[in-house]
Amino acid sequence: MAEKIFTLDELKNYDGKEGRKAYIAVDGVVYDVTNVAAWQGGTHHGNNAGNDVSDRIVKAPHGKSTLEKLEVVEN
Hints:
By secondary structure, the protein is of the alpha+beta class.
């Protein structure tokens, strides 16, 4: 899959709502969380898909370890 470069405004279109894909950005890399049960509906523990969650993921109990399981959309 060819990598896609996203602006923050473009990323907002991938909010996981109304059938749209759910993407998050962490440290400049965009991940697809569309099929992750914990992100169903585009939200996960107060975090919203379509945003950069870099500052929040480091505070999560799992940290960045769960990112290894996700599909990279951009890097």
